[in-house]
Structures are given as C-alpha cells and as structure tokens.
Automatic annotation (TrEMBL):
This is Adenosine deaminase domain-containing protein. Signal peptide: none annotated. Keywords: Hydrolase, Metal-binding, Nucleotide metabolism, Zinc. Residues 28-372 form the Adenosine deaminase domain. One of its GO terms (biological process) is adenosine catabolic process. Belongs to the metallo-dependent hydrolases superfamily. Adenosine and AMP deaminases family. It comes from Zizania palustris (Northern wild rice). CDD domains: ADA_AMPD.
C-alpha cells in the first residue's frame, strides 16, 4: 500500500470511529453501576482540594497528582477513594457533587441512572447517615441541565423521557429527562450493626428514590459473615440487592455470594470454571465495567475481558462505568469499547442497551417508560 492509499485508509478509519462514537452518545443508555464519589469531575475535585489546602487540611500538591493520574492500580483506586471521603465532608459539597454527576450522565443521553453511595457519619461536621442522604436528595432536586424524575408517580402520560436524536447532536437545546434512583451501599469496613442501619435507612427513604442495597468497598477488607445479617434483612424487607463479586479471587466469598443469589452482581472478574458455570446457570444479571476491570487488574486486557464469554453465552448483562471520574470514562465510551474491541455493530449495541431496562430496580411504570424511549429511538439508531 502506497503512502496515499495508507493516508486514505487512515482517514476512513478515523471517520468511522467518529461516527461510532457519536452514535454511542446518541444511544439512550441505562447506567446501573455508578458510584457517586467515583463519578466526580476532576475539575471539582481539584477545586475542593484547593479549598481544603487553603484551610490547612491537606497539602494541595500532595493530592493534585493523585487526582490527575491515569492507569491506577486497585489499591491506588481505593487510596483515591479515601481522598474523596476527605473532600466530601459537608452537606453542601455532597449536594453539589450529586447535581453535577446527574447532569454529566444526562448530557450523554443516559435516560435511567442508579447512583450508589455509602451514607456517611461525620460527627465533626454534624453529618449523620440520614442527613448525608438528605444532601444527596437535595442535589437531585437542584439539577438544572436536565429534568430529574425521582418518583414513579412523576411519570405521567404527558411527561416522557427524551434522548437526543442523531440529527440534533450538537444543537439540541431541549431539557432532557433522566430517571434517577438511589442505592445505599454497605461499606465492607462497616460493622454488622452499621450495615443494618443502612438497610433500615433504605427502607425509610423508599419514597424518596432509594430502591436498593449495594455491598461494596475494598474487596480485601472484611468478612462475608459480617454483612450477611444486613443483606438477609434487606431480602426480608423486599429491597433489591446488588453485590460486588469476584473483584479478587476469594473462593469462599464468591461461592457465598452466588449462593445468596442477589438480584444483580457487579464485576465478577475472578471466578474459576465451576463458579462461571454456577453464575451462568443462575442467570443473575451482571454489571459489566470494562475500563474499571482492566485498570484495576480484574481483567488482563479489553480483548480478554469476560464480557465476550458472558455475551456469547447470552447471559443477562449491562454495560456500566463503575467510577467515570476515577477511570476517566463515560457510558458512551464503554459502548464504543465494546464495539471496537468485540466487533459489535449498532444493532447489537442497541439491543444491549435496551436489554438493560429489564434489570433496573425501579418499578413497572419506569420500565414501561424506558421501553418507550427505546421504541422511539429504534428507527433512527438501529441501523
């Protein structure tokens, strides 16, 4: 191939990539695994860090590099989460972060979002788990760039979710609607009593957008038996549960989680052959986080990610970001990575996004509305 032909081929490839990336943004999407603190904008983190530095709480230069670093290991990621906890120590900051995270997801045509966050106690700031969640809910109520649907009753026949058509990318001025629900996370560092408090709080806030429980945190910390009473309590109360599973090769816990059979599982990276068979037979939907898994070592590479195995087995799954800020990604980018890495076309990507509707924890009215979003988008996008 001569230089001219090579240049033409490169230009064509670049144009094809541009088209697919734009299409992935326009695609209506469902996000089921997004941590609030891990989705904070870098610019906001830097601003908050500078404010704390000015107050003498931290040294700005010590954290600046941590915030901006790419290619973090799993342990580095959890060290950055510690920084998030330092930065988000008051109610106004929590509300601001929530507002910005929702607006960012809405901007890329995420029409349904489940945000998970660990309710925090901070006695020095007068923060309780309840007041922390009140701040999160306040943040949802102050979103300006999109209209947030927080309650099922808000979805009436004259009020439908919208996404940006391909023909209007870059010029759309309509305010999009995004359906947002909240998952309360039990942190693996918590005691059994603290975990039970989180479950009870989720029940108290079920009429304010809280619809599920998550178990997450540093996977090498804590024991399954510590959280099991709280998870069983949630199951008794009818609260849907999603659990981080297999981030590390903990055979005993992976088996226990699969036996517990939650409504969804996150990651499922480090399973052995028998565990893969058990997962597939269970048909528990899996929240796939490609970039996160590769950056933290849960998957050796994009090409060798277990997405392909589960997808080819027709296992229920949804693409997710995990921590869009922490891993410098977006849900649109995760869809593009699936297309470019595994050769999925637009029709397959559309079906993948549409299937995720069935795995949301929200009620039937929300699912009905989301199905309508995809029905309206199908003619233009599924080509």
């Amino acid at each position: 191939m001569d230089a001219e032909a090579a240049a033409a081929a490169a230009a064509a490839a670049k144009e094809k990539e541009k088209d697919m990336r734009e299409w992935c943004v326009a695609l209506p999407k469902v996000e089921l695994h997004a941590h609030l603190n891990g989705s904070v904008r870098d610019s906001t983190l830097l601003e908050l860090a500078k404010q704390l530095s000015d107050k003498g709480v931290i040294v700005f230069e010590d954290v600046k590099g941590v915030i901006m670093k790419n290619g973090r290991s799993l342990q580095e990621c959890f060290r950055l989460f510690e920084l998030y906890h330092i930065l988000t120590t008051d109610h106004d900051t929590v509300a601001r972060i929530t507002k910005e995270v929702v607006e960012d997801f809405a901007a890329e045509n995420v029409v349904y979002l489940e945000i998970r966050t660990t309710p925090k106690n901070n006695e020095a700031k007068g923060m309780t788990k309840r007041s922390y969640m009140n701040a999160v809910i306040k943040g949802l109520q102050t979103v300006e760039a999109a209209e947030v649907v927080l309650f099922d009753s808000n979805l009436s026949t004259d009020k439908t979710l919208t996404c940006t058509p391909m023909s209007e990318l870059g010029g759309d001025t309509r305010k999009k609607m995004i359906c947002v629900r909240l998952l309360l996370s039990i942190d693996r560092r918590e005691t059994t009593l603290a975990a039970l408090d989180t479950v009870n709080l989720a029940m108290e806030l079920k009429d304010q957008g809280v619809i599920g429980i998550d178990l997450s945190g540093n996977p090498v910390v804590g024991e399954w038996e510590t959280y099991l009473p709280a998870l069983e309590h949630a199951k008794e109360l009818g609260i849907p549960i999603t659990i981080h599973c297999g981030e590390v090769a903990n055979r005993k816990e992976i088996q226990a989680v699969l036996d517990f059979c939650p409504q969804r599982l996150g990651h499922v990276c480090c399973l052995n052959d028998d565990e893969w068979k058990k997962l597939k037979s269970s048909m528990i939907p899996v929240e796939i986080c490609l970039t996160s898994n590769v950056m933290t070592g849960g998957a050796p590479s994009l090409e060798l990610h277990h997405f392909a195995d589960l997808y080819n087995a027709k296992h229920p799954l949804s693409l997710c970001t995990d921590d869009s800020g922490l891993f410098s990604t977006s849900l649109s980018n995760e869809y593009y990575l699936v297309a470019s890495t595994f050769g999925l076309g637009k029709a397959e990507l559309f079906q993948l996004a549409q299937d995720a509707v069935e795995f949301v924890f929200a009620g039937d009215e929300v699912k009905k509305s989301l199905r309508e979003v995809f029905k309206r988008a199908e003619k233009e996008l599924k080509t």
